[in-house]
Write a structure and sequence with these properties.
membrane; ABC transporter involved in vitamin B12 uptake, BtuC; two-stranded antiparallel sheet
């Protein structure tokens, strides 16, 4: 019984920290209808501002909290003013993509400034422990609870009793009506981002003190936890975000008690998927609340795609195959081979996101499925490598479609959130299913790629093989997009309501797109596994999903050639110019921001 109460107290403490994150996300969504993927980066900034205040300036806790609140609040204003306000009249997906780019930039700047290594954030609270009714409570637990309750009370007072708070509530209820009544919507956005970012930064400080650990890599998981808590309570619902955070904290704490720490995040994402499937508006949404609006017709910027003559495409293909005859440097050929593998992933995502309009943020999971299926078939069953790769592509198409099928009936931002959660679940299942996947140890001794019994060891042979597979997949996808099926998929993207009214079975065609896209991604993951000869649950991380989306946007949504050009530009060029390797993620983030702002249709245009 005592252990149960201890886990309850721990869950409530962690839930209080999550609440600061989730409330900020709920406020931003309420006034901007935006899932802010940069919120976790602000959380990390708060932790590092706290580190400077505590370790270098030797400030007491009240002044440290003040420094974190002011610093991250100012960062929130900067994000809103510079990164998001110029996109106010852009396509609806643009601000979401911009927050992803902003997150890349902030995380990389933190890493370059403080190093990627974890650091200890000392607690400014005495390490006192109290035993009350058999339950152990620490002084820091009480401080976190007090900060959580005080923040909630101040926020309630602000929203209820101040003129600016009334303006925030009016804007959240009806933005256009509030503007017509004279509300300065820009000032409201500025205030909300400042408050939300201050709460997020305070959460980062408390987490650092609670675990005595901070790292630039914390941001992505923090964003995910905040989104989970917000969706559970109801997107944009501030009280719901608080309750959802406490529920998430308790779920994680009890899950750890039952199965161990490696299952902690798995419980969170399973809870998220269940809520999205059973009650997508959240636990505290009204039964009369309208479902989220689709992003149909506003997903990609209209443009005239650049079309190259067939002779020019044939010439470029021949030149690509002839490159190893001229350039014999192994590093260059290996880099371009990697670019062809990412091009296969880009082809998969440009079909799903660019053609059907399903914004998948968990596409790296398809790489993981393909890599593990092929590796296990070759290592455990002794299947020939080429047959294992083909089987991996087919299995990934089937498994990926089944996993993502709950998201087929979702709309708007919920599709992105669901695919992100499913991608994380796949990685956590791989980590914990030790009897099959070897768990954290991974799969080693994966045989190399071979054709007719001849292993492909040389850089040139690997280059030709990956290029040939990529070209075949690109030709198949181009054929599909030019068919009646391709036109049907684009109709779903443009207006799924109109498509349904014309008798198009949306789920069936989305499944076809995910199946074909999963096949391409699975082939890419399988080839990668055989080239690396070793993979584990971290080989295909969530950052690859964001990179794939950046590749697709750079080339042009739905554009087959654009996916190839985007992969060469983002994967090949930074690697070839070794001086930029350290700043690669920063380059990706800046590229995404510039594309969303000035060229949302991509280099080659959308199709």
């Amino acid at each position: 019984m005592t252990s149960f109460l201890d886990h309850t107290i721990n869950g409530l403490v962690v839930g209080n920290i999550y609440a600061l994150l989730a409330v900020g996300l709920a406020l931003i969504f309420g006034v901007s209808r935006l899932i802010n993927f940069a919120h976790g980066s602000v959380y990390v900034v708060g932790a590092y501002v706290g580190l400077i205040a505590v370790a270098h300036l030797k400030l007491p806790l009240p002044l440290t909290i003040l420094a974190v609140v002011v610093g991250t609040g100012a960062l929130g204003i900067l994000i809103e003013r510079v990164g998001l306000r110029p996109l106010a009249h852009s396509v609806r997906i643009a601000p979401l993509l911009a927050t992803i780019g902003i997150s890349f930039v902030i995380d990389q700047l933190i890493q370059l400034t403080f190093s990627p290594d974890p650091q200890a954030l000392p607690s400014l609270v005495p390490d006192w422990r109290f035993t009350v009714g058999g339950v152990t409570v620490g002084a820091l637990d009480l401080v976190i609870a007090g900060i959580g309750v005080t923040s909630a009370a101040l926020l309630y007072g602000f929203l209820t009793f101040t003129r600016l708070g009334w303006a925030v509530r009016a804007t959240a209820q009806d933005r256009d009506a509030a503007r017509q009544m004279g509300v300065d919507v820009d000032a409201v956005n500025r205030a909300v981002f400042a408050i939300a970012s201050a709460l997020g930064g305070l959460s980062g400080l408390l987490v650092g003190m609670y675990y005595n650990y901070i790292s630039p890599a914390m941001s992505f998981q923090a964003t995910l936890k905040g989104i989970v808590a917000e969706v559970v309570g109801g997107v944009g619902n501030v009280p719901g975000a608080v309750v959802g955070s406490l529920l998430l904290g308790l779920t994680e704490s009890y899950g750890i008690a039952l199965l161990g720490t490696t299952y902690r995040n798995l419980f969170a994402f399973v809870l998220l998927v269940l809520i999205l499937v059973l009650k997508p508006n959240g636990l505290f949404a009204s039964n009369r609340q309208l479902p989220p609006e689709p992003m149909t017709g506003t997903f990609v910027a209209p443009s005239r795609p650049l079309k190259l003559p067939a002779s020019a495409l044939a010439g470029l293909t021949v030149a690509a195959f002839a490159l190893p005859l001229v350039v014999t440097t192994p590093y260059v050929l290996q880099t371009l081979s990697n670019a062809w593998l990412y091009a296969m992933l880009g082809l998969s995502l440009t079909l799903v996101a660019g053609t059907v309009g399903q914004v998948s943020l968990g596409h790296a999971a398809l790489l993981a499925i393909g890599g593990y299926v092929s590796a296990l078939l070759a290592v455990d069953l002794g299947l020939p490598v080429m047959l294992a790769i083909l089987a991996a592509g087919l299995a990934t198409g089937a498994i990926g479609t089944v996993l993502v099928s709950p998201a087929f009936r979702l709309r708007g931002h919920y599709v992105s959130i669901a695919t992100l959660a499913i991608g994380e679940i796949v990685g956590l299942v791989i980590l914990n299913w030790e009897s099959v996947t070897r768990g954290p140890i991974g799969v080693s001794g994966i045989p190399p790629i071979e054709i007719a019994g001849i292993p492909l060891y040389s850089a040139a042979a690997t280059y030709w093989f990956t290029l040939a597979v990529m070209v075949v997949l690109a030709l198949l996808q181009a054929k599909l997009l030019a068919s009646h099926l391709g036109r049907t998929l684009r109709a779903i993207r443009e207006d799924d309501v109109a498509a349904r009214s014309h008798g198009i079975a949306l789920s069936r065609y989305k499944a076809i797109a995910f199946g074909f896209g999963g096949f391409a991604a699975g082939i890419s993951g399988a080839i990668t596994a055989h080239l690396y000869s070793y993979i584990n649950h971290e080989t295909f991380n969530a950052q690859i999903s964001i990179l794939a989306l950046t590749i697709v946007i750079l080339g042009g949504m739905g554009n087959v050639l654009g996916a190839i050009v985007g992969s060469v530009a983002l994967i090949g060029l930074p690697e070839l110019f070794r001086i930029t390797a350290e700043y690669r993620i920063l380059i990706y983030g800046i590229a995404l921001l510039l594309l969303v702002r000035f060229r949302p249709q991509g280099l080659l245009g959308t199709v």
